[in-house]
Amino acid sequence: MARGDKTIYMDNIMNECIGNIMKDLSKHIRIVEVRQNSWEEENLLLLTTLTDYKIIQVLEPLLEEERNSEDGEVIYANDDMASKLSEAYPLDIVILYSEPDYLQI
What we know:
Blueprint: H1 3-28, E1 30-34, E2 44-48, H2 52-68, H3 78-88, E3 94-96
Antiparallel strand pairs: 1-2, 2-3
Helix pairs in contact: 2-3
């Protein structure tokens, strides 16, 4: 096998691996809108590989702490909540969308 042939062969292997990773990822990644209260503008919009269960496990204690605090002493912003999810599950994808792009046709 000539040197150039090895490069092409390795490129093909890399492309195949990346393709397989993307196919697998596409099965698990999703957009989730987490409703925390009755105010729609406070909903948390995430692109994530986390399951509902994982999200609830992390966010429910934060929301309870926020609701039970006297005089609004404890407030978690959406970016704080996304950070907590990322810290709890560093191998998962957690991307916060505070202002999604809109396309009008």
